[in-house]
Structure formats: structure tokens, C-alpha cells
Amino acid sequence: MFSKEELIIDNLGKTYHAGGRRINALQQIDLKVKTGEFLNIIGPSGCGKSTLLRCIAGFEKPTAGRVKVRGSEINVPGIDRMMVFQDFEQLFPWYTVLENIVFALRITRMSIEPTKRKKVAQYYLKMVGLTGFEDLYPHQLSGGMKQRVAIARALSVRPRILLMDEPFGSLDAITRSSLQDELIRIWKETGITIIFVTHNIEEAIILGDRIVVLEANPGTIIEVIENKLSRPRSLESVEFSRIWEKIHLLLDFKNREQQKDEKSTTKLFKKEKELSLLPHA
User: Fold this and answer.
1) In the predicted model, is pLDDT for residue 12 greater than 60?
2) 251/248 Cα distance (integer angstroms)
3) Cα–Cα distance for residue pair 161/10, rounded to 1 Å
4) Pairing between β-strand 21-34 and β-strand 5-18 as defined by DSSP bridges
5) Per residue in 30-40, pLDDT tens?
6) Residue closest to 132 by CA, chosen among 144, 145, 151, 143
7) pLDDT score at 259
8) Fewer Cβ in 10 A, N or C end of the chain?
9) Rounded distance, CA 135 to CA 98, Å?
10) What is the pTM of this model?
11) Which helix (H) or strand (E) holds 254?
């Protein structure tokens, strides 16, 4: 289904220095993403998911390795990689829904004529189901509607890659499910490459063609899971459950090993305490 490599991440590392400490946020990340692929990234808090996305976007400069889009190394942001965040307040509050999108078109110079900008903005608002809401301001929208506007604004400049950092993480279950369906429809309609960060295992399986599982300290790839489930995907299917269990075990592996070590240590101390209470000759 996917042929050309849209994105290549080669031995990427990202280190921060804070308070005299060296923090390895990412280490030896190697990943290739095909054109038109829907890739999910999942992992525990602090594993570097958002940092990886920011390196791809060009907001962060890698400490080691490199990121290539269509064979060209990138170090700065560009309109070929647009990002949608979790925060509902990513829209400009002084602009209407339509004006938020027109502004993006104006500063990126995607449409020179003002009338053309308006038509392009209306086209993408229709794509996300917001026709009739053009004149509302962000404070008049629900969280789900704000995220739809953010997606429309990102798509309007026609990027090659759409980067999404837990965009549905703060939404209620019903709205989240609805937007997942909408995103799949938009992805199929546009053929855009999507890299989507999530904490939710079900969401990763519902959306992704492949699922990259990260672990923390340092942030590294544990495994990349192929998801060949046909769409639309059912949570009740045997294969869905199998993938869910696999990801859950991968994410829980370190915790279980840590708990095992803690139990062994507790048992050892308990034994030593018992021995210390025995009468000495």
C-alpha cells in the first residue's frame, strides 16, 4: 500500500541538561515512515513521545542523529510538517474560526488572493464538518470543535506530514470516538502521512497502520507492531484483543520487573529480620 519513504529517522538522540543533571530523553531512535502511512507512537509518560514529534517538526534540534523528509535533512520547522497539539487553546482567540485558517494561509503565502484564501479555508472547514461555524470565536466552541479547527488549519497549508500530539487526550469518550472516525475519513480522503502520539492503547490500534512502542529512561523503541486489522476496526475482534495484550505487556514489562525486584528485596529484608530475632549462642 505504501511505497516511498516519506520520513527517515536515523540514530536520533536528544539530551537535556537541567540542574546539573544530564537527561537522555531519546536514544538511538531508528524509524522509517512511508508516504500516506498512519503511524502511532505510544509509551509511558516521560518516554520522549512529544520530544520525538518536536524533533520531526523541527522545534527541537537532535543531539545526535538526523531526521530526513523526502531525502532532505531538516533542522527547522516547515509547512511540510504541521502539528496539532492537545491544548484546546492553540487557536488565536481574537480571530474567528474562518480567520484562524485564513491567517495560516496568509503567513505561509499558500493563497495570494484574499478571496482564494477564504474559499480554501471554507473547503477545509467543510472537510472537518464545521460549515456554518465560520463566524464563531474559539471561546464559543466546544473542545472537540476547537480540535477540528486546528486540524483544518494544519491541513489548509497542504503539509506532507501531519503531526498530532495527543489531540484527543482531553476529550470525553464519545467525542474522542467521533473524531477518530473523522480523522480516518480525512486521512483516506487526503492521503496525508500522519504521525499520532497517544497514551491510549485502544486509540493506537483503532488508528494506526503501525504502532511504535517506546520505553522511558532513556526513550527508546521497544518494538514496532504491524496492525493489519481491516477498517473499520472492532474492539471485539480476537486480533484487536491480541494486539492490545501485546502492547499492554510491552508497556507493563519494566513495571513488572521493578515490582519483582522490590518483592525480592522486601523478602530478603524480612528474612534478615527474622534471623536477627533468633537467640544467639
Assistant:
1) yes
2) 5
3) 18
4) antiparallel
5) 999 999 999 99
6) 145
7) 46
8) C
9) 7
10) 0.86
11) helix 238-276
